[in-house]
Structures are given as C-alpha cells and as structure tokens.
Amino acid sequence: MVIWLLHSSYAIAQNQVVTGKVSSEEDGLPLPGVSVALKGTTIGTVTGMEGDFSLPVSGENNTLIFSFIGMLQQEVPVGGRTEITIVMAPDSKQLSEVVVTAFGIEREKKALGYTVQEVSGEELAEVKTSNVVNSLSGRVAGVQISSNGGPGSGSNIVIRGSSSVSGNNQPLVVVDGVPIQQSSTNKYGGGISEINPEDIASMSVLKGANAAALYGARAANGVILVTTKNGSGTKGIGLAISSSATFERPLVKPDFQNTYGGGHGYRTWYSNGRSATITDPLEIAQYQDAYGPNAPLTGTAGTDESWGAPLDGRLVRQWWTGADVAPLVPQSDNWDEFWETGQTYVNSIALTGGNDKGGFRLSVGRLDQKGIMYNNDFKRNNISLNTSYNLTQKLKAVVSGEYIESGSDNRGFQSGQQFIWSHRHVSWDQLKNWRDYAAVHIQREGDDLPPNWQHTFFTNPFYEQEFLTDANDKDRIRGSVALNYAFNDKLSLLLRSGTDLWSDTRINVSRFERISNGNFRAGQYSEEVLRNQETNHDLILTYAGTLSPDISVTAQGGGAFRSNYYKRNYAQVEQLVIDGLYSLNNNASPNINASAIEEKQVQSLFGSAQFGFREYLFLDVTGRNDWSSTLPANNNSFFYPSVSLSAVLTEMLHLNSSTLPFAKVRGSWAQVGNDADPYQLAQIFNARSPWNASVPSFAENTTIANATLKPETTTGTEIGADLRFLDGRIGLDATYYEQVTKDQILGVEISKASGYHQRILNAGKVSNKGVELMLFGSPVDMPNGFKWDVTLNFARNRNLVEELAEGLTTYTLYTRQGVSSEARVGQPYGTFYGNAFKRSPDGQVIYENGLPKIAEGQAVLGNIQPDWLGGVSNAFTFKGITLSALVDVKKGGDIYDEGTGTARWTGQYAETAVGREEGVIGKGVRNIGSAEAPVYVPNDVIADGKAFYGYNNPRTYHESAIFDASYVKLREVSISYSIPASLVSRIRAQSASISLVGRNLAILFKNTPHIDPEIDAYGGNAQGFTYGQLPNSRSIGAGLNVAF
Amino acid sequence: MDIYKQLKKTVFLTAGVFLAGACTDKFEEMNISPNNPVEVSSAVLLPNGIESSVDRYWGHNARYERLNLDGGMLWMQYLSRNIYSNEGDNYSVNPSFHNNNWKGFYNDAALNFQRIVVQSGPGGRNPNTNYEGIGLVMRSWVFSLLTDLYGAIPYSEALQGTAESPVYTPKYDSQEQVYAGLLEDLRLANEKLVVGGPKVSGDVMFYGDILRWKKFANSLRLKLANRQAAKKPAESRAVMAEILGDPATYPVFTNNEDYAVLEHTSALPSNNEWHQVMIQGSRTDWNMSSTLVDQLQALGDTRLTVFAQPNKAGEYAGHANGLPDAIATTYLSSSSVLGTAFLQPSTPSVIMSYAELLFVLTEAALDGDISGDAQAYYEQAIAASFGQYGLEVPAGYLGAAGPATKESIMTQKWIALFGQGVEAWTEYRRTGFPVLPPHDSRAVFMNDGELPSRLQYPSSEYSLNQAQLDAGIALNGGPDNMKTKMWWVE
User: Fold this and answer.
1) Which InterPro entries does this entry report, sorted A to Z (chain B) (predicted)?
2) Cross-sheet strand order for the sheet of A962-964
3) Which element (helix H / strand E) includes A527?
C-alpha cells in the first residue's frame, strides 16, 4: 500500500504555490484562522497570525475558497496569480451556509438535496448541560429528546419518529468522522452524553435515511454528526478557560393533600412499623386518648397509604416518638425536604495553537455533579487532543484522541415512589437523620431494621442511598488517525482508522445485612465488568473536477470495515459473610456467575458522485454494499442506493429580487439496509442456576432462531424548499418526508403452546410521514447594534404500522400492569391498550352504586406519539449583551403514569382529601333503565371517598392513569455579556464573557396535574410509561468564558 | 481521458487492497455464539424442566402468578389472606395469573421435556429409552395440570415450534382427548422405562431410580383414569385393571417412601417456593383459613400441629377467606400462620403422595371401578397421610371422620392434600367436596361469588392463536370465564 502510494505520488507534479493575506472588512485587521481551500479538493490550509497563507495549487482554472465563521465565504479564481489579497466581509445573511455532511465533508447547504440542520458550538456552550444532546431539544425540527435526569444519565433520542418496532430508534452518533457507541441504558449514559460540551464546534443532524446513505445500516434512524474544535482559527497559542456552576431543584411539585395522615380507617398510629395489634397497656391508653375506646387496637404503619387521621394535632405515636406521643401535624414541605439541591460544575481549559502547517487543541474538562437525590453523584474527566499537520504539501495527518474517565460512588437514585406509597405526615428531614432516633425507634420482635416510617414494605430511602450504592468506574478511549494524500488538485485519498473502547466496572450493593420478620438476611452485591469496542477503518478516494466549464463533479469511492466487540463478566455474591466487605471471596454460598461475548463485523464498499451544473443544479448519487457477519452466508450482502437533486431557482432563473433573494427546491430518495444482532441464526440452550449448586442445568431458548434472515430495508423520500425573503432577513425551510421500514428483524411472539415465546422473523412495515418547517429571521436589526433573531421550528410526524408478520396483527412493545403499548396493524406505533371505563353513548362515564363501571375487553387508551413538536428561540443582542430564550413545545402524545394513578389511590394528592368523610359524587351518569334499554341520568349517588378514589388504581383501572403529555416549556433562558475588548486586554485576554443561564425554568402549559409530562422511565420500547421516576429539575447557574 | 483511466485504476486498486485485508470467510464462524451451546444432553435439561414445573405447581414465587399460594391454597380455604385479598382470595385474578402460568408450563417446563423426548427417542440424536420415559412422564404431568387448569388445551400439536413441520398456531384438543392421550403416553412411558436399562443422570427427583419413575407413571395414570371414570367408565376401568392386575409390569407407590416428590435443598434457588416467598421474600400476607382450622379442630386432627403454628395466645385460629383488607389486616397477628415444616428451604414439593394414590383407590372401589374394600382403602389412606408427617392416627379419629362415603373420602382427601392446593381444587371441582362453609358476611367476592371453575385462557392466545382458541373455547361448552365447568365434573 505504502509503496503504491509513493509510486503514484511522483506521477502528478505540482505546478505553483499561491501565497496571500486575508483581512477583515470591518476593522482592516488581519484575520487568522481563515480556512483556505482549493475548490473541489481536500487540499487546504488556514491563515496564520498575520492572516497569511500559502497553498500549493496545480493545473489551470483553480479556485480558492475562503471561509470563516461569521464571514461571507468567497470563491476566488487563482487565474495564474501567485499572490492574492482578500478582504472578508461579515455575513449577515448566511446565505451560503456550510454544513457538515456525511464523511465530515463540508458542503454548501444549497447543494444538498436533503435536510441537514446544524447547531453551533456557541449555541450549545451558552447553556451548559452535562449531556450535550439535551440542548438539541426544541432547536432542531423533528428531534425528540427525552431525558431521565439522574447525574451522568443519557437521553432517548428519536429523529422523525420511530421506524423500528424492535426498540432501537436511536440515531447514529459520529464524532469527527468516526462512529461512537451510543449506549442504550439511560441510567449510565454513554456515547454522546460523555462528550465535553466545550469541545464541540458544531453538531449536524442528518435526518432520515436520505441524509446518511453513506454511513451504512445504522444511519437508518438519522445521524448526529459532532465536529470537535481543532486548532485552526487561533493566533498562535491560545488559551480558553470556561467555568460554570449550576444548581438544580425539582421542577414540578405534586399537589399534595395535607389534611390526613398515613394509615387507614382515619387512624394514624405507629405501633411497631407493621400492622400490629396494640397490647402494651401504656400504648392502649395513649391510643384510646387519640381514637376513643372503640377503635380497633391495631397500628396503621403497615399500610403505606394516607387514609389516616386528620392532621389536627392529636397526640399519636410516630416512628420517631418511641413510647411517647407527639402532635400529628401536616408536613406540607416534606417534598422539598426530600430533595437535595443538585449541583453541576463544569470546568475546562483548552490550549490551542496553529500555523500554516497545522494546528492542535488540547483540552481538559471536568464535570462534577451531585444529584437532587441524597448521595447520588457523578464525575467525569475529559482529556482530548486534536492535531492536524501538513507533513508535506500533499500529505496531511489528523490525529485526535480523547480519554474519558467517569464514575460515581453511587449512580443509584430512588425513583420518587416515596411520595406514592407514603404517609403524608412524615418529615423527610427527620428520616434523613434516622440515626438520631435509633435509640427510641420501636420495632417488632424479630425485626432489626434501620429506623423508618414503616417496615412492612419500605426501607428508609436515605439509608438505602447511603448503603445500597451503585458505584461505577468507567474508562473510555476514543481516537482516530487520518491521513489525507492529495495526488493532485483533483484526486486525493483518505485513510482513516478510529476506535472507541470503553470498560465499565459496576459494583452494586443490592442488600444490607438485616433481620426482618425473624429472618436473617445476609448482605448481597454484584460486580459487573463490561468491555465494549468498536473499530472503524475506512478508505476514501475523492476526485473533484469538472466535466465541462458548466459541470463540476465530485466522486468518492472506497471501503469501510467495522468490528464490534462486547464482553460482560458478572458475579453476584448471594450471601455476604462479613457485611460491608464487597469482595467476591466474601461469600457464604456459591456466587451467581454470568458472562457473554458478542462479536460482529461489517465490511462495505461504497461510491458517490455529486454533479453540479452552473452552481445552481446539483445531483448526488450514492451506493453502498454491506457484508455483515450476522446474516446467513447467502443473504449477508446487501446494496442500497440514494439519489438527490437540488435546484437553486433564484440563480437558475436569474431572479434578482430583494424580496426573494434565494429559493431552492430539493428532493431525494434513499434506501438503507440493516443487518441483525449477532447469533440469531441457530437454536441455542441457556444455562440456568445449577440444581443444589451442583447439578448443571440448561433450558432451551424460547426464541426460535432463523437461519434464513435477510436484511431490513428503510426507504425514505423527501422534498423540500429553502427560501429567503426580504434581503435574507426572513428564511423558511420546509420539508415533507416519507420513510418506510420493512422486513424488520423482529422477535415475533407466537402461541406459547408451540413451546416457544417468539420467532425471529423478517416482518413488519412501518411508515413515518411528516412535515418539518423552520422559519427564521431578524425582525429587528437596528443601526445602533440592537438585533432580534428568532427561529421557529415545527415538526409533525405521522406513524403507521402497515404490516406485521403473516397472520400477526399485534406486536407488543411493552407491558406493565396489564397496559400494553402495541404496534397494531393500522395503528401508530405505541398505541396503549387496557381497561377503559364504561361510557354512555354520549361519552360519559357510567356509574353504578356511585362507582364507575369498567368496559368489557381491552380498549385503545391513547398513543405515545406526539401530534407535533415545536420550538421558538429568540435572541436579542445589544452591545455585547445577548439575551436568548428557548421555548420547547410538544403537543399530544399520551403517557401511562402509574405514579399519579397510584398516589391518588393511596390518598396522597389534594383531590383525594375532598369528600373523604362526606362521600363523593362521581361526574357521569347512571342507568335507571334496564341493561337492554338503558336510560341514563346524571349520577347522583354518593360513594365512599376511599372506594371512589380507589378507581384510580392504575393496575386495574388503566384509563385513569392515561394522561396527555403535551407541554410548553421555557427550556432555556440565558443572558451573556461579552466584556469589551478594552477591559479584556487589561488582563491580556482576547475575549471574555460571563453568562447567567437557566434550563427547564418553567412549564408554561401541561395537562398532567402532578408531574412533569416529559418522562422516560424505562427507555427503548417502553416509552410513555412512568412510575414515580426521578423528577426533572430546573437548573440555574452562571458561567465564565475567557480566551487568551 | 487519462484521468479517468487513473481514477478507475485507483478505485480498483484501493478496493483490492482493502478487501485483501478483510474477507467474509470468517463470518459464519464469528456468528456462532460463544456463549450458548447449540446441543445439550438430556442430563442437563432434566433438572431445569423438573425445577421449573414443580416450582410453578407448588409456588409460584412471582407475585400475581402464584398458582398454588394465591390460587389453590386460598380457594380450597387452607389459607386466607390478611392483606390484598384481591390477589386471589376474593376470586379476583390478575391477568398475569392466567398468562404466565400458561406460558411457564409450556415454555419453561414442557418444552424441555419435549426436547428430551425428541432427542432421546428413536431416531433422536442420542437415543436412551429411560430419558425418553422420564420425559414422557413429566410432560404428561405438566399437560395434566394444564388441562385441569384451563380445559381444552393444545396437546397433540403443542410443542412443535421447531419440529420438522413446525406448528406455530397449535389446535386445541378437548379435555377428553387430552386425557385419552395422556393415559396412552403414560402407558408408553412405563414401557420405555426399564429398570437396569440405560443410565440417566441429572435426575433431581428420583436420583436415577427408574423403578420410582415407573411407579410415578402408573400411579399418575391411575389418578387420571379415576378422574375421568364418571365420564368414561369402560376405558377407565380397563386402565385400572391393566395396572392393578399386573403389579410386576405396572408397579405403583407402595409406601410413604416412594411417592412423587421434589426434595428441595437449602442452596438457592433450589429451595422450596414457600420458603422463597415467605422467608426469603419476607411476605407475611397469609394466615390459616378458619375453614381448615375449624374442620381439623372438630376432628381432633393432629395434622393441624404440622400445618399451622399456634398464635401468640398459644391457640390455633384462622380467619375467613375473602375479607376486605381493612378487616383482614386486623387478623394478621391473631390468626395462625403456616407450620414451620412448610417453611423450610428443604420442604419437599409433593407431586403425588402415597395417601393420594390410596384415596384414588378408595374412590374407585366405592364407585365399583375396581374390586376391593373401600373402607379398608380409606383407612389405609388416612393412616398414610398421618404417616407422611410422622404421625399416628389418633384414637377415635376414624369415628369422627365417619365411614367411607363420597363426602368423607373427599373431605379426608382434601385434608391429605394440604400443600397440593391445585390438586385439591381440581378434586373439589370434580366432586363438589369438601362442602365449604357459607361465605363470611363481611367477605366480598368477585366472579359473582362463585369459586373459580377454571382459569381463563391467556390474552396471548387471543392475539396469537385466535382461530384455534375459538375452536378450543367451543370444545369447553361454555364461555372463556371462570365459571365454565370442566369435562370431568361429576
């Protein structure tokens, strides 16, 4: 290979070197860091400290492209010159936006026949989030982000709706041309959530199959291309320091009742933590003082609900009073007591340098996070180095690497069920200080448990947070080496290898030593070591030239090789000998062991060609063939093509109107093939726990393997228009798309009586059709520098399950408590089925004896898919001050909120305090006719309050827990101030800014009475289900950026 | 043009270089799972099949699908709930109870027995008649549970998901057809099982003792024949005569040492399921039912001291079934709880006891299906049941129990079946005995107050096997609810 490269190199001679200088129109000063590229090639350089550059060019008809962020790009024909002076003007219209597309190729947006939306690093860095992808929410049309909120957690990302019923609808994440592994578990995060936001130069979202045919199979769900900052654009050595601190509190507080305490039967009495009979004479006397002589002599702490005594100051025993009594009073603020103030500190330093030979950027970032849950934290160190160097005038090397060390003493957090199964009269401050009450806390004989408000079902959550920790320690290295050789001004070769390797050790203490109910239970813990690696090699040959003066062509061809490796080692100590000593040898019984290895390879050949006609008509054609190790030998090769066309009408038709200075239409069609997970072709047996820890045991896998699998196919079509009005002050970008995924590789359930649970099949056809609109402009742009920029995003996606396997009409995505989220033929993905209330012909709930009736059979209760997503971002700038605000809108989409339903059933929420003693009349009708000839009159029967609110039990009355999850959120507000250069120069800095930022500041509209409707408790196919998950938090903080 | 020649050459070369370093030859090897075998011996399939089926029958440990603890044991009023009476005690049943017991018996248990039968049968990968026989016995026992729970079930076309001609939507066979098939399968099993024949291992039930397997096969066959005797007298009598007429060919249980039982161990998860739920899982939701306690106390039955522990006052007490939580919880500390003998990690799960066989013979003798003295069998059966717990029949007990009539036999059988709640429920459904007391006036029952007559078919059959299911429901002669009667109901 090397020999061949050398051999080829002398065949193409270079002709001349162009040198020159670039300065700014505004102040006349030299502009360092301007990118100078030889058009149609990958040859280029950046200007040095004095705006100077030097670039070898060959052949005739050369054109240089000068580009710099915020400046109008210029194309300058060399025309035989050896010296060129350029003055760059600021770009107010940004008409010729350059975006990063597949393979990291920067292309003019006007040449693209498909949708790419970009978010700049500045936008992202302004309001820092520990997981950078959360910043895309509301900024990019059609991107739906749901985050679960714990420190270091990941997010569920869906672009243009869910296309795969098998669960993975996450886009591919590519950093500087190399894919990184995107973890599917939210709790531990991974992938894009581990990137230091300060390192990001820009993020491009390539939506749908159209944008990404060149990235292969995994791009079917779209691609997020992350470009990191490199050394280009610095005057010599530069130093950038950035620091921020933000503080978090829960955003939404449920509307609690503070009228009745915990327990049942209007009695609140802690006897011994369980439903105990009261026998002690003193206790009987105290009890009868509170409840009279006829009340049943039982404690009520065993009931984890709030149907107890009125909080009227009567004297009762509580968990912390021992044999004394204390007044029973409301604890209205116990929600606020429970949650900590979360803290996030992000600090980073970046050192950059550059000259005409190359550049480098070394950055160190540190994130420290404390969750809103007690003893729940996360830390991360990022060290990255990006370098590029022009070894010769033809050979450029780009080497980048990053080491990420992250981990936590406790990733675990309580899910918020403390306010669902709960006693409203407890103080969490007291429970947090449980040690203070250990001496007086009464327990039943046979219990030796940490003090808590009850012992039947719950352990003190603060004790669990302290002792049942879920620690992890993760190392991740990702890096790539790229060599780019320009044979001549038209032909170049890129060789690139990148790898992403991580290893995570998770130590999870699942039980502490205790005596409960007379039984000794030893401690228990597990160790899990995961190792994941993805390696990509690719080789791309690029030709850029012209076929005629009017027709330009850029052709690329090459191959790619990807390998994935996964290893899991797991051991669990069932019974610890010495509690608190977490070693696999410290075991009283055999450990549970498990391990797994997964390997996969994909090899690809691809080609693409872009033809441009007179800079206004562009045609792209691509094709790719993959060979995958996970498919049967006769089916493991699959080809998928794409074609797209873009026409700049204003140039084509010579329209020189200031009303419509720019108009482009585009259209594209693309296919993406996808392979399977490994090891789905042969029937296997699974190991089970040996009998009596000694007799080996296996069971047949209940999934029927399929030796005749074939690849999945996603086909996407889109058309769009990109328009600018009024001198470019207003822009509109509109897209309509259709995307169909078929032959999905699914585990299709079959009758269990076949002996098996499911078959692996190529089945199913799911379509997504939608519209994306982006309207942007500067309504105000005054000569004094005051400017208002506004961007509106709107996306509407319609999803439909068109086919499943033969004879199959339902695919269950997820089931909980009898509610299932299903993909049914003719319905959108994620339709909720479950028990509904019986309704009269005019839609009113039918009551019988004052209580609602349940309709027979299963009914459609809702759907997780939103009607539309939108966002409005505003930025006001004036003399170095920028005020920006982002409003994020989700309209429609239902959730099954088991938490709200349960907390109503258990008497926690305000509405359940109404009519507890007098009874409740449900809103609806009752039948006074016969079953055959019903006559409905308004319901006027008074029902017992507890029985009535029991109809919120989400385990049976599913409909009562279905809520519309629409929201309008004030997602971000930030004020930043760029300190004037005159002041900054005093500390020898180039620039400095300070900012105040807020995220998730307010919910302006929602239909869920007690929770933030933005939920994602379980991820994957379990979208739309929640049960008291960690509440989302509002964060407010300040940041400082200084560049030297 | 030169440049195009060069381009072509370069693409060709680079592609060549690229592919030379990587080829797809190793793909097939790479895609063979390094984690799981594609073939295993019957010796390692047997423990899991036995453990999963017996645990489900005796437990199960998962909430909302505890077939015995929250089904048979409550419905037959051995136990009652002190909280969450809606988890079975008041006849309300969670959907997962119907769904997961079906799935568990077919997918975890029967599938592995089927695999044993196929791979150790004639033409199988590893023929061994003793494994084949054991597989047939255990598969038959699981099918008998399934049909007794649901009625018509897929039987003749079941477990064929990976057969040469796979069946994904198996048809339902009527209970009558299933019983006929099982009686034949068990006859075949006895024939396949040869004492002194090929060795078996992994037999966690009988430790490779083929004679015990034969005894279980024939005893189970007798039990099934007796169950259908009222509906198919001639066929049932022929089966009984065949077995009892030739004890050398058709051995059955002869004492309390060779009953069908899984002896659990203290190494988790090989422990008893009640231990798992109540001790490991710390659940305290069950007390003794007043029905059982009152009955045993009236009879002066010393088995009560084994079945239950006295309460704090030193007395045996129970409370009624189906009480709403607010009332039931008040009994938590005053009603007796299960006896410690049933809460040990090694407490055996009884599949079929010697006493049970004797009660089968008692009933058959009473009905005239076999010759022999019903009263004598009856007394032997009672003695065997006391003997099972190391007890002697107390003096005067037989007088209190009354002479052998259908009611006294079935009432005594109910006591003897303590722990085998599902079997007791089946026998109650068949005969209507024991006579259960009227509902407590404070109790609130679902299913219109009717004790469930069967389980409903799982929702998965509605979505995945609808046409066959509809035909199956028609075979039951009544709608798919918990009121339609079984075929063998007398």
Assistant:
1) SusD-like_2 (IPR041662), TPR-like_helical_dom_sf (IPR011990)
2) A962-964, A894-897, A1025-1026
3) strand A524-548
Query: Given the DSSP bridges, would you call strands A617-628 and A637-648 parallel, antiparallel or unpaired?
Result: antiparallel
Task: Dump the DSSP string for A216-271.
Answer: -GGGGG-EEEEEE--STT-SSSEEEEEEEEEEEEES----B--SB-SBBTTB---S
Inform me whether the pLDDT recorded for A85 exceeds 90.
no
pTM above 0.90, yes or no: no
| CA distance, residue A1007 to nearest chain B CA (Å) | 30
Residue with tokens 């453990």: B51
A264, A519, A603 ranked by CB distance to B326: nearest:
A264
Hunting for tokens 């505004």 — which residue is that?
A26
pLDDT tens, A214-238?
777 788 788 888 888 877 655 578 8
Interchain contact, A636 vs B27, CB within 8 Å: yes
CB A604 within 8 A of CB A624: yes
B204: nearest CB among A561, A695, A809: A695
**Separation between Cα atoms, residue B222 and residue B241, nearest integer Å:** 10
Which residue, among B463, B465, B468, B470, would best test binding to A if mutated, counting the most A CBs under 10 Å from its CB? B463
The pLDDT, as a whole number, for residue A167 is 57
Alpha carbon distance A732, A792 (integer Å): 9
For A686, name the nearest residue in chain B, comparing CA atoms only.
B36
Mutate one of A691, A761, A819 to test the B interface: name it (highest B CB count within 10 A). A691
- Residue A315, amino acid: L
Contacts with A493 from chain B: Cβ below 8 Å: 10, 14
Contact between A678 and A709 (Cβ < 8 Å): no
Contact (CB<8Å) B154/A702? no
Residue A147 has pLDDT above 70, yes or no: no
Answer for the pair A943, A922: CB distance below 8 angstroms, yes or no. yes
Q: Within an 8 Å CB–CB cutoff, is residue B7 touching chain A?
A: yes
Q: In which element (H, E) is residue A518 found? A: none
Best mutation target, B2, B36, B331, to test chain A (most A CBs within 10 A): B36
Per-residue burial over A414-445, b if 16 or more Cβ lie within 10 Å, else e, is bbbbbbbbbbbbbbbebbbebeebeeebbbbe
Which structure tokens are listed for A978?
């760029």
CA–CA separation, A340 and B416 (whole Å): 58
Question: For B200-229, how does the pLDDT look when each residue is reduced to its tens digit (9 = 90+)?
Answer: 999 999 999 999 999 999 999 999 999 999
> How close is the nearest chain B Cα to the Cα of A563, in Å?
11
* 8 Å CB contact between A840 and A846: yes
Judging contacts by C-beta atoms under 8 Å, the chain A residues touching residue B18 are 539, 558-559, 561, 605
Residue A745, φ and ψ in degrees, nearest 5:
-85, 110
- The residue of chain B with its CA nearest to that of A705 is B162
Q: In this predicted model, what pLDDT tens digit does every residue of A649-684 receive, in sequence order? A: 888 888 878 888 888 898 999 988 888 889 989 999
Give the residue from A192, A198, A531 showing the smallest Cα distance to A367.
A198
Q: How far away is chain B from the Cα of A525, in angstroms, using its nearest Cα? A: 15
How many helices and strands (H and E) does chain A possess? 10, 58
C-alpha A112/C-alpha A108 separation (Å) is 7
**CB hemisphere CA count around B348 (13 angstroms):** 16
* Closest CB to B38 among A678, A683, A751: A683
Contact B48 A697 (CB under 8 A): yes
Question: How many whole angstroms separate alpha carbon A415 and alpha carbon A417?
Answer: 6
Alpha-carbon gap, residue A381 to A608, rounded angstroms: 39
ipTM exceeding cut-off 0.90 for this assembly: yes
Question: Would the CB atoms of A695 and B202 count as touching at under 8 Å?
Answer: yes
